[in-house]
Amino acid sequence: MRKTLIIGANGKIGRQLCEKAQAAGEPVVAMIRSTEQQSWFHERSIPTVLGDLEGEMRQAFYGCDQAVFVAGSGPNTGPDKTLTIDLHGAMRTAELAAEFGLSRVIQVSSIRSETPLAGPAAMRPYFAAKKAADLCLAESGLRHVIVKPGRLTNEGGSGKLTQNADDSDEMQVSRANVAEFLLGLIKAREIGGRHRKAPIFTLFDGDTPVSGLLNATTTAD
């Protein structure tokens, strides 16, 4: 069945992605940690499933054909949550995606993940976790896509992006534009690759429509 599991659905990007998918008629299921988080999704007729990146989450994968990992521990937590959510949560997602035979994993990372020590000291554990998670996914053999947004903002979405930081204002990107791009990826099931051949998108606010970025992509398994 064509259905996408959104992991991290209750986050700022996750909620916008679920709303956009619902409006577009794209079947998704939002993985949430507790029933207390259900009301926002149920008010919008978005299906939910209980799953915890630090606990039981296996049941969330039933009936899904791909997954989007857009979870994050958030700016107010310590390195312990960074390890269990941003790194180990991503690793568990890859393991379960392989076990359930999902066709693809879309993983949201960060532009700073390639060089964690170049970032601000407080953010280095986060960037290091993202780098390790990206490497684990690349070595998993799963078909996947990695998305690396710039500095996230809460500005309204234009639906236009660039992969070139020179064309971006302060290397930033709105969460709304990231959600729009992820929706485009969800629909474009032909985009993906295995190991180091998988597509990696860096995202900044720009002038190119989402469809333009996706149509210019070539992939190979």
Number of strands: 11
Approximately what portion of the residues adopt beta-strand conformation?
15-25%
Output the structural class: alpha/beta
Order of helices and strands: EHEHEEHEHEEEEHEEH
Please give the order of strands in the largest beta sheet.
3-2-1-4-5-6-10-8-11
Mean pLDDT: 92
Unreliable stretches (pLDDT < 50, length at least 5) are none
Gross morphology is globular
- Main β-sheet description: 9 strands, mixed
Proportion of residues in helical segments: 25-40%
Please give the count of helices.
6
Radius of gyration: 16 Å
Question: What is the rounded distance between the termini?
Answer: 22 Å
Describe the structure.
Helix content is 33%, strand content 20%. The chain is an alpha/beta fold. It has a 9-stranded mixed β-sheet, with helices on both faces. The chain has a two-stranded parallel sheet with strand order 7-9. The chain is globular.
Topology:
Layout: E1 4-7, H1 12-24, E2 28-32, H2 38-42, E3 48-50, E4 66-69, H3 79-99, E5 104-108, H4 124-139, E6 144-149, E7 151-153, E8 160-162, E9 172-174, H5 175-187, E10 200-205, E11 208-209, H6 210-215
Parallel strand pairs: 1-2, 1-4, 2-3, 4-5, 5-6, 6-10, 7-9
Antiparallel strand pairs: 8-10, 8-11
Helix pairs in contact: 1-5, 3-4
Short description:
With 221 residues, this protein is an alpha/beta fold. It has helices at 12-24, 38-42, 79-99, 124-139, 175-187, 210-215; strands spanning 4-7, 28-32, 48-50, 66-69, 104-108, 144-149, 151-153, 160-162, 172-174, 200-205, 208-209.
